[in-house]
Design brief:
By secondary structure, the chain is mainly β. The chain is built from 1 helix and 48 strands. Strands 37, 39, 40, 41, 42, 43, 45, 46 and 47 form a 9-stranded mixed beta sheet that branches.
């Protein structure tokens, strides 16, 4: 299959003190750097699925066969790496066979009664979007079998994430086999995965989901194999935004959950508050940390409003990794419902295909008492259905993404860039763009985002005396917000296609300028001159 027909094998050497977590890996070629893929650094022992053995029939050597991949023995805890490849990889290169039947990979291990096993697959997490696949990623499934071959656990999604996770308490000593495959039995070389297995620390929920900047917040944890049920997040030096929260345990570290830091006053939801008669009184501005703690529950909050006052009611829950699918209502004590919101799209929430958080922006019609009513769209609830509800006047702001994250710079042409804007709470002003610290030899053309526009294309010109070495850049946007200059850095990103049609702006680590190989262009110029034609 031409789109994935090139194969490069690289050897990666890790320093003993390398920081844990994801990295970006790219391939450098004479034409520049490739798009980034994720490479993870961990502490657990790692195993790799063996390559399938090819058997050639002596009677017909042109027809190789591929026997089933054998079950691979591993010892816990571990991380296993593999690909769901076609049963017959030769079929992959036939253009008529875009998808071919894929194998299932199996790993066998010993487990003891009472162990709380976490088996967490990373598939979409490694390659978030595939341009020519439906639903647009490798849809992995996990199944666990006991020594008698009976299926004892299965998962194809963990809550709203396509990557499955099994949380399994071992009932008896013995051998167990975990199986991974594609949900509809496809196979492709880019269906890669990592599975972490063992008595690993794993968080299933945190509360509250955030806290105020400049203060310490005690967070309650729930999950499996955690060494503690509370953690203190000290936001003394944290800037507003999302920060990773994880729990170490011996040589292991848990999965990561986002912790939201803000500058507004905060409070906790108090029960009972499930009706307008029992509504919890709050004073704007405020962020309420709460839970829809049981099915068909509603949380209601009361505040005083003024004629002509513009207000924002915004839920952050799904974006903070909780299963809440929020619905939000604004009610007027004297006149019923004024506004309603179910799903509000956050275009920079790049991995989300169901935007389940709610947002209301409304101008209050009169002085009086108003109510905000929050619940789950499907009537679900429980301790993990946490949320942060912001009630405030608009706070105009913006975020920026710049694509591509790697610019293949050529001195004799204008190099294109695109800047994407997320405008918040009604900000519609002009944004001026420039490189931080004004790097030598670079000039932007068209570096202004007009009022109300959320995407522009601009060009970068390079001086011919620049070094051939890659250059790290930082693009900034400046705008007047309520009479004050606000500066925001543009996050490098790549535009990824999902399922032939949908486009997503996926963040990358660095914005890098790579001058093209001048030797190659001198050779092309010489060939063009010899042929009597211009080099275009």
């Amino acid at each position: 299959y031409p789109a994935i027909g090139d194969t490069v094998t690289v050897r990666v050497t890790l320093a003993a003190d390398a920081a844990l977590g994801p990295r970006e890996i790219r391939i450098e070629t004479p034409r520049g750097l490739s798009n980034p893929l994720r490479f993870f650094v961990g502490r657990l022992p790692e195993f790799r699925k063996p390559e399938p053995e090819i058997i050639v029939d002596a009677r017909d050597p042109s027809e190789p066969s591929y026997p089933p991949v054998p079950t691979t023995d591993i010892a816990l805890p571990a991380v296993v790496n593999g690909q769901i490849i076609p049963r017959n990889p030769e079929m992959l290169w036939q253009r008529s066979e875009r998808f071919t039947p894929g194998a299932a990979d199996r790993f066998r291990f010993e487990a003891r009664k009472g162990q709380q096993l976490v088996i967490a697959a990373a598939a979409r997490k490694l390659i978030p979007y595939l341009p020519d696949a439906v639903p647009g990623w490798f849809q992995a499934t996990l199944a666990l079998y006991d020594a008698k071959g009976r299926q004892v656990a299965y998962d194809d999604d963990y809550r709203f994430h396509p990557d499955p996770v099994l949380l399994f308490k071992v009932p008896e000593d013995g051998e167990y086999v975990v199986e991974i495959k594609d949900a509809i039995y496809r196979g492709r070389p880019d269906f890669v995965y990592r599975i972490a297995l063992g008595e690993l620390p794993y968080m299933t929920g945190v509360f509250p989901l955030g806290g105020p900047a400049g203060a310490a917040t005690t967070v309650k944890l729930s999950g499996w194999n955690l060494p503690t049920d509370t953690l203190t997040m000290d936001a003394q030096d944290m800037t507003p935004g999302l920060h990773p929260l994880s729990v170490p345990k011996a040589e292991m570290i848990s999965n990561t959950m986002p912790f939201s830091v803000d500058t507004l006053p905060e409070c906790l939801e108090r029960e009972p508050n499930d009706s307008t008669q029992a509504a919890q009184a709050v004073t704007l501005p405020v962020i309420v940390n709460g839970r829809i703690d049981r099915p068909d529950n509603w949380d209601v909050f009361r505040f005083e409003g003024r004629t002509g006052q513009e207000m924002i009611a915004e839920v952050r829950a799904r974006r903070l990794e909780t299963p809440l699918d929020s619905v939000l209502e604004l009610l007027y004590a004297a006149g019923g419902r004024l506004a309603f919101s179910d799903d509000h799209e956050d275009k920079f929430d790049h991995l989300r295909t169901h935007h389940a958080d709610s947002l209301i922006r409304f101008t209050l019609p009169a002085d009086g008492i108003y109510y905000v009513r929050l619940g789950d769209a499907q009537g679900h609830g429980g301790p993990e259905y946490a949320y942060r509800l912001r009630l405030s006047e608009p706070r105009p702001d913006f975020e920026l993404r710049v694509t591509p994250s790697c610019i293949h710079g050529i001195t004799w042409r204008l190099n294109p860039l695109a800047v994407h804007v997320l405008r918040k709470d009604g900000f519609n002003g002009e944004i001026a763009l420039r490189f931080k610290d004004d790097p030598f030899g670079l000039a932007l053309s068209g570096g202004v985002v007009p009022e109300g526009q959320d995407q522009i294309r601009l060009t970068l010109a390079m001086a011919p005396l620049l070094s051939a070495d890659p250059i790290r850049l930082c693009l900034e946007g400046r705008a007047l917000v309520d009479g004050e200059e606000v500066v925001r850095q543009a996050v490098p990103a790549e535009v990824c296609t999902q399922a032939f049609f949908y486009k997503h702006v996926v963040p990358a680590n660095d914005l890098t300028l790579v001058p093209e190989d001048r030797t190659r262009f001198r050779e092309e110029e010489a060939r063009a001159a010899k042929a009597g034609r211009p080099l275009s």
